[in-house]
Specification:
alpha+beta, Mannose-Binding Protein A, Chain A, seven-stranded mixed beta sheet, four-stranded antiparallel beta sheet, 21 strands
Length: about 350
Amino acid sequence: MYEYKYIKFDMTWTEAQEYCRKNHTDLATVTNMTDVKRLNQTAKQRPAWIGLKNHTNSNKIWHWSLPGLSFNNNETHWRWGEPNNDGSELCVLLKKNLTWVDDPCNNNQRFICYNETNASQNFHLIETPLNWTNAQRYCRENHTDLISGLQQLDQLNQTWNDSMKEKLAITITHVFIGLFSDAWAWSDESSFSFRNWDQQRYKDNGQHGCAVLTDNGMWNTNDCGQTIPFICYEDHVILINESRTWEEALYYCRHHYNDLVTITNLDDQRWVQEKTKNATTPYVWTGLRYTCTLGFWFWVSDEVVRYKNWASPEQVNECDMSGAMETGGEHKWVKKHDEEKFNFFCSK
């Protein structure tokens, strides 16, 4: 979907941003721990600029810790009077009545992890108190992430057994969840909330307003005017804001780029769905196609459809159908007739 490019020239953050936009796509955006490993393999020298900058004059924005999950200001469970806009309270606690309150991130609290791979035990109450950043790191190393999003919180309430609920309600009055706020934003204006700060060095102030990759593979803040090497990224997915049938979209991508996009895993899904915010149609075509003759779905790139993100169970008895992604909501895949006209994703 994208690749990192290490640039050995010493530049300020702004100069590095201009260089990346002119010669590649933008300064490096990092979406998950897989990207962190790729970034560290790419960087030959540290520190090196990445595309995260502190917009201190902007309002702080709430994010969910789980990559790819957008925060909706219209769907919240804040306790009355919260958040109270205290500048030091940038993380969130879940109270025993399932309402939210903001709290300093450096307080040590119990917390709840979410496990994406174990359907029978999705949630794990961790009773060893940690600050929010260390709690996040623990969840990412041992599970998937801190519990994130209303869907997970509702599922938590529905699926936890009675003894676990009783424990949370009686012996523990509040726990950290994966909701946090900051004024940091990516150069490419994406909404990715992933952060990998080195808390031993991290200083969030106006004098150190840009992010760098450090020698231990984590991130620190730095003076944006310092001249150091940097990391760009090259995007291999492009949204075409033209409404075409699926076949027209296929020919367009193969003529101008490479092919209609293929999505093989959750990381690919999150990268592609981020781009739907600029779409002008309710769905966006992908390279997913149904063969009526053989009775199965396939990617036009010849990749096998292993990862799936259908909005509903597949209906295999329909011909002339191709796969599109929802522009809004959870960005699920849906089956649409080939002759409908939507925007589309090309791979480069």
